[in-house]
Amino acid sequence: MNHEATSHEEIPASLPTTSGPLKTFTVGETRYTLLGTAHVSAESADDVRALLASEAFDAVAIELCDARHHSMSNPDAMGEQDLFQVFREGKAGMVAASLALGAFQQRIADQSGIQPGAEMRAAVEEASRLELPLMLVDRDVGITLKRIYSNVPWWQRFSLFSGLIGSVLSRQDVSKEDIEKLKEGDMLEATFSEFAAESEALYTPLIRERDRYMALRLAEEAPPGRYKHVLVVIGAGHLKGTGEHLETPLPAEPKVERELLEATPPPSKLWKALPWLITALVLTGFAIGFSRNTDLGWQLVLEWFLINGILSGGATIIAMAHPVTVIATFFAAPLTSLNPTIGAGFVAAGVELYMRKPKVRDFSSLRHDVTQLKGWWQNRVSRTLLVFILATLGSAVGTWVAGFRIAGALFGG
């Protein structure tokens, strides 16, 4: 059956007064009280404790996903990942973005004296103390980032990435405006707010989809009749949208729509075929060159090797890679550029890990080191990520530059 909701009701007199907004909805026999919180606010954490101390609730739902809950419970979880596995699965960019977001969060905590998400931590602690069921109703942050990436036009992706890195690393102090944004939104919204207000393609996966997702998760995890009264702790920026979804009938099988909001579009067939097409064109260019003149053929091979090697190996120098890594990348990049199954960044990161194995202190200090630009180079974990990313970018640029050189030599006179 459909989950039909009434309009939001008056706040029960038995609940304490809170600094943040409250909205209450009744669906069947279950009441949902939504608390709009500020993610950088001691008062919001106090609101959560006061509401749960009233003993009016028999379950708690919070705006966290499994990954962020795990990160909150274990702050060093990011640094404990198997780096080689990260590179092999192509997750280096996602891990670097997560580190950048974590660095932004740590800088806010250091500057304001308040850890962002203190109200979520309070909800977790109080739910555990009172032995109440705890539900994580937000979408996985990695899925949200992927849907943002796939939803925006390709020409905006670089500006998003540079905006993320710039907002995290360009200033020593986080501005008061950024902290104020966090009081109404969350870490993702604060980071991308410059773009979200002007881009429907970005606003949809970042905010609107998550409003719907959290309502569906409530319908799935706390359907009418399972609990009497659920406290839902969400950012104030999501209060209106999530509440509107609760006011309207939700699907009888919320899992189906929820899984659709978790799906990430697969790469286009053209994008998957492009590396193989480039390889075929380059090899064809070599063949044409040798068929015309042996010296021309060897000239094309040499230029391909030098351009790829210098740009990719040189990029690892920017990352302050080990000399052996630089040399290995120089020789590997021209070959990996002709083999789409393995990348120069993977080779570079593998050699760097072998030559400079991260130590325990690198993992334990990772969150603090990446709050400063120089820390990305000083910490062996984050520096290996830089080696991977820069070697990959250098090889990609080298492939296009060398490819155009070959085309020019063969057809441009």
Structure report:
The chain contains 20 helices and five strands. Helices cover 65% and strands 7% of the residues. It starts with 21 loop residues before the first strand and ends with a helix. The chain folds into two domains: 22-162 and 174-262, no CATH class; 269-411, no CATH class. It is elongated, with a radius of gyration of 25 Å. The protein has a five-stranded mixed beta sheet with strand order 1-2-5-3-4, sandwiched between helices. Helix 1 (42-53) packs parallel to helix 5 and helix 14 (294-318) packs across helix 15. With 413 residues, the chain is α/β, with parallel strands linked by helices. Residues 1-11 have a biased composition (Basic and acidic residues).
Mean pLDDT: 81
Total of DSSP H or I helical runs spanning 4+ residues:
20
Cα distance spanning the termini:
72 Å
- Report helical residue fraction: 55-70%
The overall strand count is: 5
SSE blueprint and pairings:
Blueprint: E1 22-27, E2 30-37, H1 42-53, E3 59-62, H2 66-73, H3 83-88, H4 92-112, H5 118-130, E4 134-136, H6 141-151, H7 154-169, H8 176-182, H9 187-196, H10 200-221, E5 229-235, H11 236-247, H12 254-262, H13 269-292, H14 294-318, H15 323-336, H16 344-355, H17 360-364, H18 366-369, H19 375-378, H20 380-411
Parallel strand pairs: 2-5, 3-4, 3-5
Antiparallel strand pairs: 1-2
Helix pairs in contact: 1-5, 4-7, 4-20, 6-10, 8-9, 9-10, 10-11, 10-12, 13-14, 13-20, 14-15, 14-20, 15-16, 16-20
